[in-house]
Amino acid sequence: MIIVVHEQRHQQNWDLIVVSGHEDQQEHEQYALVCAQVSAISVGILNSIDQQCPNSCELTMEDGFVSIHVKESTPLLQSILETFVIQLDTVAQVNSKTIKIEKVEV
Q1: How many CA atoms lie within 13 A of 23 on its CB side?
Q2: What is the mean pLDDT of residues 4-23?
Q3: In the list 8, 66, 84, 99, which could disulfide-bond 19, CB 3.0-4.6 Å?
Q4: Using an 8 Å Cβ cutoff, are 98 and 55 in contact?
Q5: Residue 30, phi then psi, degrees to nearest 5
Q6: What is the pLDDT of residue 1?
Q7: Residue 22 burial by CB count (10 A; 0-12/13-18/19+): exposed, middle or buried?
Q8: For the CA atoms of 97, 93, 39, 51, what is the dihedral angle to 10 degrees?
Q9: Cβ 19 vs Cβ 5: under 8 Å
Q10: Nearest CA to 57 among 102, 3, 18?
Protein backbone atom coordinates (compact mmCIF):
# COMPACT_ATOMS: atom_id res chain seq x y z
CA MET A 1 0.00 0.00 0.00
CA ILE A 2 1.18 3.52 -0.79
CA ILE A 3 0.36 6.52 1.36
CA VAL A 4 -0.35 9.58 -0.77
CA VAL A 5 -0.03 13.08 0.63
CA HIS A 6 -1.49 15.94 -1.41
CA GLU A 7 -0.27 19.37 -0.26
CA GLN A 8 -1.77 22.42 -1.92
CA ARG A 9 -0.66 26.04 -1.58
CA HIS A 10 -2.23 29.26 -2.77
CA GLN A 11 -0.21 32.48 -2.63
CA GLN A 12 2.43 30.94 -0.34
CA ASN A 13 -0.19 29.65 2.13
CA TRP A 14 -1.23 26.06 2.69
CA ASP A 15 -4.94 25.73 1.89
CA LEU A 16 -5.44 21.96 1.59
CA ILE A 17 -3.60 18.91 2.87
CA VAL A 18 -4.97 15.41 2.26
CA VAL A 19 -3.39 12.16 3.45
CA SER A 20 -4.89 8.96 2.09
CA GLY A 21 -4.08 5.28 2.07
CA HIS A 22 -2.81 4.83 5.59
CA GLU A 23 -4.47 2.32 7.86
CA ASP A 24 -3.93 1.12 11.40
CA GLN A 25 -3.20 -2.48 10.39
CA GLN A 26 -1.09 -3.56 7.43
CA GLU A 27 0.08 -6.91 6.14
CA HIS A 28 3.75 -5.89 6.18
CA GLU A 29 5.55 -4.64 9.26
CA GLN A 30 7.29 -1.87 7.27
CA TYR A 31 3.94 -0.43 6.15
CA ALA A 32 2.50 -0.73 9.65
CA LEU A 33 5.35 1.34 11.08
CA VAL A 34 4.98 4.07 8.45
CA CYS A 35 1.20 4.12 8.91
CA ALA A 36 1.65 4.44 12.67
CA GLN A 37 4.04 7.36 12.15
CA VAL A 38 1.69 9.15 9.77
CA SER A 39 -1.31 8.51 12.03
CA ALA A 40 0.46 9.83 15.13
CA ILE A 41 1.65 12.95 13.31
CA SER A 42 -1.83 13.52 11.85
CA VAL A 43 -3.65 13.17 15.17
CA GLY A 44 -1.22 15.55 16.86
CA ILE A 45 -1.58 18.17 14.13
CA LEU A 46 -5.38 17.93 14.05
CA ASN A 47 -5.50 18.31 17.84
CA SER A 48 -3.16 21.30 17.63
CA ILE A 49 -5.31 23.00 14.98
CA ASP A 50 -8.49 22.24 16.91
CA GLN A 51 -7.11 23.68 20.17
CA GLN A 52 -5.02 26.60 18.90
CA CYS A 53 -6.99 27.68 15.81
CA PRO A 54 -10.59 26.60 16.40
CA ASN A 55 -12.99 26.89 13.46
CA SER A 56 -10.16 27.83 11.07
CA CYS A 57 -10.34 24.57 9.08
CA GLU A 58 -12.61 21.77 8.03
CA LEU A 59 -10.93 18.77 9.66
CA THR A 60 -11.69 15.19 8.64
CA MET A 61 -10.14 12.02 9.99
CA GLU A 62 -11.47 8.61 8.96
CA ASP A 63 -9.89 5.21 8.39
CA GLY A 64 -7.04 5.78 5.99
CA PHE A 65 -7.95 9.42 5.31
CA VAL A 66 -7.09 12.83 6.77
CA SER A 67 -8.14 16.15 5.27
CA ILE A 68 -7.36 19.70 6.37
CA HIS A 69 -9.17 22.35 4.35
CA VAL A 70 -8.32 25.90 5.43
CA LYS A 71 -11.29 28.25 5.84
CA GLU A 72 -9.51 31.14 7.62
CA SER A 73 -5.74 31.35 7.52
CA THR A 74 -3.61 32.86 10.28
CA PRO A 75 0.16 32.94 10.78
CA LEU A 76 -0.19 30.42 13.64
CA LEU A 77 -2.24 28.05 11.48
CA GLN A 78 0.29 28.29 8.65
CA SER A 79 3.09 27.50 11.11
CA ILE A 80 1.21 24.41 12.33
CA LEU A 81 0.59 23.27 8.74
CA GLU A 82 4.24 23.87 7.81
CA THR A 83 5.22 21.67 10.78
CA PHE A 84 2.88 18.95 9.46
CA VAL A 85 4.45 19.17 6.00
CA ILE A 86 7.99 18.99 7.42
CA GLN A 87 7.09 15.97 9.55
CA LEU A 88 5.53 14.14 6.59
CA ASP A 89 8.52 15.04 4.39
CA THR A 90 10.81 13.53 7.02
CA VAL A 91 8.84 10.26 7.05
CA ALA A 92 8.86 10.23 3.23
CA GLN A 93 12.64 10.69 3.04
CA VAL A 94 13.18 7.49 4.97
CA ASN A 95 10.26 5.58 3.41
CA SER A 96 10.15 6.68 -0.23
CA LYS A 97 8.64 3.37 -1.39
CA THR A 98 5.74 3.66 1.03
CA ILE A 99 4.79 7.35 1.00
CA LYS A 100 4.43 9.70 -1.96
CA ILE A 101 4.07 13.46 -1.55
CA GLU A 102 2.46 15.66 -4.20
CA LYS A 103 3.00 19.42 -3.78
CA VAL A 104 0.80 21.73 -5.83
CA GLU A 105 0.81 25.52 -6.15
CA VAL A 106 -2.53 26.92 -7.32
Answers
A1: 8
A2: 90
A3: 66
A4: no
A5: -60, -45
A6: 60
A7: buried
A8: -150
A9: yes
A10: 18
